Fold this sequence. Notes:
GO cellular component, one term: nucleus
Strand content: under 5%
Structural class: mainly alpha
Pfam families: UMP1 (PF05348)
Oligomer: single chain
Family: Belongs to the POMP/UMP1 family.
GO biological process, one term: proteasome assembly
Radius of gyration: 20 Å
Largest sheet: none
Number of strands: 0
Distance between the termini: 15 Å
Order of helices and strands: HHHHHHHHHH
Protein name: Proteasome maturation protein
Amino acid sequence: NSRGASYLLKDSVPVTEFSASGPFEGHDLLRRGFTSVKNELLPSHPLELSEKNFQFNQDKTNFATLRNIQGLHAPLKLQMEFRAVKQVQRLPFLHSSNVALDTLRGNDECIGFEDILNDPSQSEVMGEPHMMMEYKLGLL
Length: 140
């Protein structure tokens, strides 16, 4: 019964993960907002690009400083640790806090916007665990 399966799929998994890509894809106004050529060409504010790349620029500066102080091995070791920690994730239907990554970056003692207003119990991605896991493994 394909109709029943599509009904479960629609309710349990975010629509953006299953949306068809191509020239006939519909634009989702609720998730992406109104389309505008100007918004696609230029950032809306001069600091927007800087804020999007803040963590990358901060890591780049820290790696350069670490290389100057301790040598080439220190930033390479830290980058390998970052890559290893990013690969460890919970199942797709559970919230992952990335505590190890925050500890490596030194953000474990900082309280930010995402700590207060990113409550996983209010998340909209919670769905049927079996369907989400099958999608992640490529079985669906």
